[in-house]
Backbone:
């Protein structure tokens, strides 16, 4: 059914999606909080940059990342000079690409959730003596459960389906940077249709179940949302 | 004393508020919609960025040239127009949200007793979603109070409620404010709420303060927004004195004049402190003592002041009735006909007086 290389591709894919989602939730929270509340003109610029992966072909993003992080690239050369390992063709290179590529899928639901929350509950909490971090933990987090669930699931699912970016920056090194979508491509190229089928069908099923989870949660949660 | 002198420039309008009131009792902040009452309250709480000036709450400086305390550092209780309860917490968790964050509980607060006074004892375990408008406002009020604020800010808490609930909650507030010893700033555009609840009055218009002080004094100044309009009224404080006339109750004011009002039912317990609201348009003037009138209260008075300009064909006349202050609204025609002027002795006929508490 699954060859050892398929299984390692699956493991890498899941590890990549989980790592990317975790990083994005941590980075995305302050970013989305800022976007939801700022009146700065910079906001539109940042929003546009975050949304870029939605419209750009993933290969464009992967291409520039590869150029930047190759040992002779702008960032890669600095990293090499300071003795850091190269990100190109490594797992952490994949993570970097995925974080950028999946960012809109995490930041936008969080931002919408924070905007929907409004400033009133936070003002009420502040007047009751809660400082900024206290307010975030005691008011924003519990009232943004659905936003976080949506952001996490979309970020995870979108990373599962990545192809162009990971191919460019990760290469296609089995056991290191070969992810599921690329493994499927390889099988098809080699005319191993049944192998490709197993992987493709599994990915299809997992993605469907994940989305089903959000949409049914959406219905359940909407009952407890702020009127 | 509470001393306020703040300025705030916003795109739509400018707020410049300077006043001081005693640090006890209820101070009503009254003015038409859009005059900046809510903005003033928000600036006091520290919710408006860019407010400058001075806020001194009985010696505690919340804002001055050097420092601006953060919202969460100001010991301020705020009850917003809509209750803004936390939907993810139960009624009890909402009530205790601020209290849990107090560094020390300075006063001994009997929670059980407080919940009973607030009328929320049976609601504690409930979620916020099922509360009625009046219940939600009481929880919001309790939540603010339990954080033991130095100043309680209340922003038109009755405006979003239906008529029946509004009356209930108003009676509740009247009692409640008398029982607490925290100064309250109460924003409203209802003269009835002012008359019932306020000890001090701050008048606002177009982002400015147009008058402030003890309620009697502010109501008696005839050139303010409040007294020039149709809503002009006076407030008399007194006690239920006796009930010897059939179906009438006598209220004796603090200066000793007696007013007869139709029987007030259960409210008229002998010796109870009450307030009467007398609308200026319900007070008419006679040069001689009228005889055979159906009007119960006819009192000798002296004109102590009158507005210089007629407003919509009428003038506001300030009367001195044995030391009590009364406003009367008289048509410009009558002013001319009767040659009303300062110092003239007259008889004030009070057509009706509303018992407020």
Residues:
């Amino acid at each position: 059914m699954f060859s050892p290389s398929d299984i390692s591709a699956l493991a890498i894919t899941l590890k990549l999606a989980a790592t990317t989602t975790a990083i994005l939730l941590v980075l995305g929270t302050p970013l989305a909080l800022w976007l939801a509340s700022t009146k700065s003109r910079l906001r539109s610029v940042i929003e546009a940059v975050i949304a870029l992966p939605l419209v750009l072909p993933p290969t464009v993003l992967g291409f520039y990342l590869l150029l930047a992080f190759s040992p002779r690239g702008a960032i890669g050369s600095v990293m090499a000079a300071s003795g850091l390992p190269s990100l190109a063709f490594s797992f952490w290179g994949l993570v970097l690409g995925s974080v950028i590529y999946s960012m809109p899928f995490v930041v936008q639901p969080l931002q919408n959730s924070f905007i929907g929350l409004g400033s009133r509950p936070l003002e009420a909490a502040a007047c009751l003596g809660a400082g900024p971090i206290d307010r975030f933990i005691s008011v924003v987090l519990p009232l943004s459960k659905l936003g976080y669930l949506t952001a996490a699931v979309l970020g995870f699912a979108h990373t599962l389906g990545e192809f162009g970016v990971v191919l460019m920056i990760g290469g296609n090194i089995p056991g290191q940077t070969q992810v599921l979508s690329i493994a499927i491509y390889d099988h098809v190229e080699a005319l191993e249709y049944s192998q490709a089928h197993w992987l493709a069908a599994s990915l299809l099923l997992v993605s469907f179940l994940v989305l089903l989870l959000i949409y049914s949660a959406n219905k359940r949660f909407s009952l407890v949302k702020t009127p | 004393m509470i001393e306020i002198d703040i300025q705030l420039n916003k795109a739509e309008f400018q707020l410049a508020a300077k006043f001081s009131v005693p640090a006890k009792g209820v101070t009503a902040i009254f003015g038409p919609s859009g005059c900046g009452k809510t903005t003033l309250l928000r600036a006091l709480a520290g919710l408006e960025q860019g407010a400058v000036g001075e806020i001194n709450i009985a010696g505690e400086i919340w804002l001055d040239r050097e420092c601006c305390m953060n919202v969460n550092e100001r010991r301020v209780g705020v009850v917003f127009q809509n209750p803004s309860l936390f939907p993810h917490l139960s009624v009890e968790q909402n009530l205790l949200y601020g209290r849990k964050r107090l560094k020390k509980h300075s006063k001994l607060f009997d929670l059980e007793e407080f919940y009973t006074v607030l009328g929320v004892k049976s609601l504690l375990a409930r979620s916020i979603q099922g509360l009625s408008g009046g219940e939600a406002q009481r929880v919001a009020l309790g939540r603010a109070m339990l954080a033991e604020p130095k100043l309680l800010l209340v922003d038109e808490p009755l405006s979003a409620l239906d008529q029946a609930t509004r009356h209930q909650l108003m009676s509740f507030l009247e009692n409640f404010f008398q029982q607490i010893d925290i100064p309250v700033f109460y924003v409203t555009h209802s003269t009835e709420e002012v008359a019932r609840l306020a000890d001090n009055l701050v008048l606002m218009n177009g982002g400015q303060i147009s008058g402030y002080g003890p309620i009697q004094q502010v109501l008696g100044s005839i050139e303010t927004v409040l007294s020039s309009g149709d809503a002009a009224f006076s407030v008399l404080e007194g006690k239920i004195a006796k009930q010897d006339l059939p179906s009438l109750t006598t209220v004796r004011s603090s200066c000793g004049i007696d007013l007869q009002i139709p029987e007030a039912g259960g409210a008229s317990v002998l010796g109870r402190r009450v307030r009467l609201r007398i609308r200026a348009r319900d007070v008419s003037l006679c040069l001689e003592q009228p005889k055979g009138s159906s009007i119960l209260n006819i009192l000798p008075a002296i004109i102590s002041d009158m507005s210089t300009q007629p407003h919509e064909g009428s003038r506001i006349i300030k009367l001195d009735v044995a030391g009590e202050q009364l406003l009367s609204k008289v048509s410009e025609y009558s002013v001319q006909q009767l040659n009303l002027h300062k110092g003239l002795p007259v008889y004030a006929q009070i057509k009706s007086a509303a018992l407020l508490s």
In short: Residues 4-37 of chain A form the longest helix (34 residues). The radius of gyration of chain A is 20 Å. Confidence is low (pLDDT under 50) at residues 223-227 of chain A.
